[in-house]
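Archive record
______________

***
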Amino acid sequence: MMESSRQIMAIGNHSALRNTVEALSRYDWSIFHPGTLEEARAILSEKACRVGLVFLDEAPSSIPLYMEKMPDLYWISIIENVELLSDETRDLIYRCCFAYHSGSLDAQHINTLIESALSMAKLSDLCEKNRKRCQNKALCMVGDTPVMQHLYRTIRKVASVDAPVLITGKSGTGKELTARAIHELSSRRQGPFNAINCGALPAGLIQSELFGHEKGAFTGANQRQIGIIENSSNGTLFLDEIGDLPLEMQVNLLRFLERLTVFRVGGQKEIPVDVRVLAATHVDLEKAIEKGEFREDLFHRLNVLQVRTPALKEHPEDIEPLANFFFQRFSSDKPAMLRGFSQESLVVMQQYHWPGNIREMVNRVRRSMIMCEHRLISPGDLGLERRNGHSRDTDSLQQARDSAECEAIRAALARNKYKILHAARELGIARVTLYRLLEKHGIDRNGVQDEAAADFPSTSETIQLT
């Protein structure tokens, strides 16, 4: 996209345009006045216009077409009296314009509006450039809290070696995104990245899908098929929901991990495959081992390195940046008038516990962007009424107290840049008491700073890299 400049496109009647151009002459704007929509498009293809002036008094019927066909322009409408406009024209201004000027010609005020619109256009360009850069960037993750910074460091560590990795975490926390980041940062980044959901494979076809088959191996096998493991040679294989893999297939997968060779179904020889295996699960595999649902030897083969993706409630400070990121990501789906989230909706999103984690946030934000009929997304558009944040109908008094206590601790840590002593002082408690509360509520201590931490016993920590 071309760099934003002091160039304006003006649409409307010539007399109003001439007076405005004269009034704005001392502010060094270049103003273009196309006669047709085709001319307007030609100007946009050659000039870096990001702001449009539209004169709506006695304007021709084609004006709305310009505004709706060129939504990337930040439109400013100039009118004599907004009260005298038709309902349709007022609605057009509301839907498509950044701002409007009403009353007598005031060059200074109009110039201020244009400057503001151009600043917003430049900010929009930067956001769009960053979004596109993130699409090709390995760590395309949003969040700057200590919890997320620890995840980024762990990803970089495990990406530098070639051992198997087990990625754990609740559903919707971004396990596949983590696996892709590991692949993109590894020495195998030039090879394929193949993902397969072990729980979605038909029981009778798992062997063939993973290891491939030879022609005539079974009824319907009319030609040789290369399995996904073999197809991942020199790259990375991601086995999602590994806990759902049937026990009989776990034996075959274990043999592959031990020998790094595959037997196609109906084949007569072993085929060596150079592939790195990443696996993910949302279930507790150690409990599955106790129940006899998962092989312990396979668990240890996969769990050489471990990465845990945090639930969204563990880093609530990232909720607003995430919501804004997804708003920008799906901006092509939204109505032109939609500008963002209301303050109330941001508060309610902070209070909500997000049982579906980031996947749920993506769905709620995208749906609200499509269905919202106002300039700002409300809690109702998100399907999150304020009462849902605290679950008043179902929580006991103790649960409500615990929830409030946990939120207060997280907020105090964030305000004090995760310095334990300062946060404890703000909360009016001893430092050692704050440590006990961190453990009680399961708040991750990674990133917490304490200059005198050696004087106090540490609480238990979850090992992310084994």
